[in-house]
């Protein structure tokens, strides 16, 4: 099996967290000092109970429910604008991910929830990391050298058992070209399918001939 990266592989483990009683001015200072757009709020057991975003802080700083002047009749939004602590400012409930989730599953959750990041929790619900959209996008932006190495090492070598040099691999901007010989014609579609499953591959062009087949 090819190694499929998970949320645990790409998440940030050192997370800046807030407590429900953290004052808003400390939240703003922490976000600015650590250059982050949001921070999870955790309880006494370290479990995330909400998230405070930069837009939440901006609502408070401007004294308006929405910096663009919307949500003027939204009492919940006005409550955030008047908040003094993270507990009052945070968005809750918080949507979380697990470290063993696949990248596509986490991406679907982010899109479906319309959020930019997800706190990652362990078996007991405590915070173990945070994963953002940029973390997930980075898995699809791999260098040609990385892709070529995985195709040669894992697809052709470890899985198909082909001798080194039997098939030449060229990768340009994520497009893989295979040239060479395979011992069985049935391996051609298998090789193509496996290459298509390598993260970062956008296309596969196979020029493979079967040799030694009856």
TrEMBL record:
SMART domains, A to Z: CBS
SUPFAM superfamilies from the UniProt entry: CBS-domain pair (SSF54631)
Coiled coil: none
Domain CBS residue range list: 11-68, 90-147
Record-given protein name: CBS domain-containing protein
PROSITE patterns: BON, CBS
Start and end residues of each BON domain: 143-212
Organism (species): Streptomyces griseoluteus
Alphabetized UniProt keyword annotations: CBS domain
């Amino acid at each position: 099996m090819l190694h499929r990266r998970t949320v645990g592989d790409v998440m940030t483990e050192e997370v800046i967290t807030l407590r429900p009683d953290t004052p808003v001015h400390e939240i703003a200072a922490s976000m600015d000092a650590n250059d982050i757009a949001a921070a999870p709020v955790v309880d006494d057991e370290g479990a995330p109970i909400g998230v405070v975003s930069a837009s939440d802080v901006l609502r408070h700083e401007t004294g308006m429910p929405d910096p663009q002047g919307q949500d003027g009749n939204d009492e919940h939004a006005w409550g955030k604008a008047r908040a003094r602590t993270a507990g009052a400012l945070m968005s809750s409930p918080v949507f979380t991910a697990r470290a063993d989730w696949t990248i596509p599953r986490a991406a679907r959750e982010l899109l479906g929830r319309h959020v930019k990041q997800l706190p990652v929790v362990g078996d007991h619900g405590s915070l173990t990391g945070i994963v953002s959209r940029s973390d997930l996008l980075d898995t699809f932006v791999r260098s040609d050298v990385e892709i070529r190495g995985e195709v040669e090492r894992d697809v052709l070598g470890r899985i198909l058992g082909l001798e080194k040099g039997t098939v030449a691999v060229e990768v340009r901007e994520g497009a893989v070209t295979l040239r060479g010989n395979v011992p069985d014609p049935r391996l051609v579609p298998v090789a193509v399918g496996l290459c298509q499953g390598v993260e970062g591959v956008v296309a596969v062009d196979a020029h493979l001939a079967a040799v030694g087949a009856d």
